[in-house]
Amino acid sequence: MGILDGKNALVFGVANNRSIAWGITEALLREGAAVGLSYAAEMLEKRVFPLAEANNISFVEKCDVTSDEQIEAVFAKAKDHFGRLDILVHAVAFAPGDDLGGRFRDVSRDGFKLALDISAYSLIPMARHAADLMTGGGSIMALSYYAAEKVMPRYNVMAIAKSALENIVRYLAVDLGPEGIRVNALSPGPIKTLAAAGVPGFRMMLKYSEKVTPLRSPITQEDVGNVAVFLASDWGKQVSGETIYIDGGYHTLGLTATEEDLQ
Ligand code: NAD
């Protein structure tokens, strides 16, 4: 018996087995949910298809979230396949390399539009289509990062996209709440993934944050998956409009110095 037995989930953002979306998928499957996957582009099929096959996932659909038509099509297929949807996971982000790192003042207009479109706006049409299928209520989750609130080196345009995403989460939570649909952001600390590798100096940031984070241990995809299970389950049924940190307590720090640093 899993705590998500009988629930249907649709997860956007699996690129490979290191994706946070895959960590969430594994946790949802473990707890008994039926999961469908959506991935961005053909080039990812060689990684996504074998993962799906090995886990008996039969709903695997391509969707570039910059396209309203493709988003609509994937939810139409999800309706045919699942009938009802209970859980939606948005683990999708992109920014052009030139707009990460470098000087913030140099962020380009085109980079800004693309990063905000893919990483923030896309949650709105996804939630709209998901809500039509969440006839028994539901739980929608989007992946954010602490750079939404505090300045993190090199996140630049992605930080702005995350701020927008977290506010979209709050507005959706109010809009969809009366239909019994909860909307929350999950904000993990740094995890080594494909998207993270695009942030210049990410490895150093990972090392540094492990050194100063109160819990001192690395954050894993599984850690995020377990919090997603809680939010997807009835245990989280009164949690909405929230940003939940899975960062070992990092966001509580004012000065990020250890005792040794202060000697
Ligand atoms: P990832 O590269 O595995 O996942 C990012 C996904 O976004 C990929 O599957 C990619 O194909 C998808 N994507 C990009 N453009 C798309 C488009 N146009 N249409 C559809 N999909 C598209 O990396 P990840 O770290 O697992 O990222 C997942 C989420 O977690 C992102 O929102 C990211 O910002 C967030 N996050 C990551 C970290 C971290 O340290 N890795 C920390 C906090 C938040």
Give the end-to-end Cα distance, rounded to a whole number of Å. Answer: 52 Å
What are the low-pLDDT stretches, counting only 5+ consecutive residues below 50? none
Please write the string of helix (H) and strand (E) elements. EHEHEHEHHEHEHHHE
User: Helical residue percent?
Assistant: 40-55%
Strand order of the largest sheet: 3-2-1-4-5-6-7
Number of domains: 1
Number of strands: 7
Radius of gyration: 18 Å
Describe the secondary-structure layout.
Blueprint lengths: L7 E5 L7 H11 L3 E6 L5 H10 L5 E3 L5 H15 L4 E4 L18 H13 L1 H11 L4 E6 L12 H21 L4 E8 L5 H4 L4 H11 L8 H12 L10 E4 L17
The chain binds nicotinamide-adenine-dinucleotide (NAD).
Nicotinamide-adenine-dinucleotide binds next to helix 1 and helix 7.
Describe, in plain words, how this protein is organized in 3D.
The chain has nine helices and seven strands. The longest helix is centred in the middle third of the chain and has 21 residues, at 156-176. The protein has one domain (8-246): NAD(P)-binding Rossmann-like Domain (Rossmann fold). It is 41% helix and 14% strand. Strands 3-2-1-4-5-6-7 form a seven-stranded parallel β-sheet, sandwiched between helices. It has helices at residues 20-30, 45-54, 68-82, 109-121, 123-133, 156-176, 194-197, 202-212, 221-232, and strands spanning 8-12, 34-39, 60-62, 87-90, 138-143, 181-188, 243-246. The relative contact order is 0.15. With 263 residues, it is of the alpha/beta class. The structure holds nicotinamide-adenine-dinucleotide. Nicotinamide-adenine-dinucleotide binds next to helix 1 and helix 7.
